[in-house]
Amino acid sequence: MIDYKPARLRRLAAFLADIYIALIPCFVMLFASTLLPGAIRAYVLFGLMFLGLGLWYCRDYLWGGRSPGKRLLGLSVVDQATGLSATGKQLLIKNLFTFLASFDGLVLLFSGKSIAERVTGTAVVRDKVSSPLVGKRFLKVGAGALVLGLILGGVVSFALNAAKGNESYAVSYAYLTESDTFARQEDTGTEPVLVGFSDSTHGTARSQSYTFETDSHVYTVVCHPDGDGTWTVCGDCTEFE
Q1: Residue 230 domain-assigned?
Q2: Is the distance from CB of 208 to CB of 167 less than 8 angstroms?
Q3: How do residues 35-69 score in pLDDT, each as one tens digit?
């Protein structure tokens, strides 16, 4: 019924899935905490931190040897000697060790068996009759989506970094940070982050637009070139939300 040698790629995918699943409720509650008064926000953030730690620590124990990521990929944790489901003690020690020794993931990747499994006498096995999500098509689509996301993220990041080399960027940034609106709306020391850029031409008129964000506001600054080639901000085109 079980295969004691699941593919390392499958185990890595399950590991990453568990991380994301544990982070989802934390991010939701973290966003909700921004709506709370500052006096109790710190308590909520500490609560979120321990929630994430607790979900990670109990990821196998709460689901009988099959964390959400392992269940998705058709894996489970068993006692290596008997082949039966691992005990609660084994699972808790295994996950605690994995959490404290982050390098154990590298040991698993290169050797096929983590130190935590050697210490607790457990093994991660693969059910031969598993969820259809484990099929090769699912893995290919998932891997393709991951690679595409990384590529698109890299392209956007590269484009925004390249835009910072424009003369108009320096003009736009100075105009925003020195404006009365920005000083009134933001705390002292707040740095706006560039999240968007466009370069457009309408007939003979050219403009470059920069979108900045802070924790609570969005600002769009538009520049036009003068006759001598220098860039100036178009006050009528600029939007401070």
Answers
A1: yes
A2: no
A3: 665 556 666 677 767 776 676 666 676 666 777 77
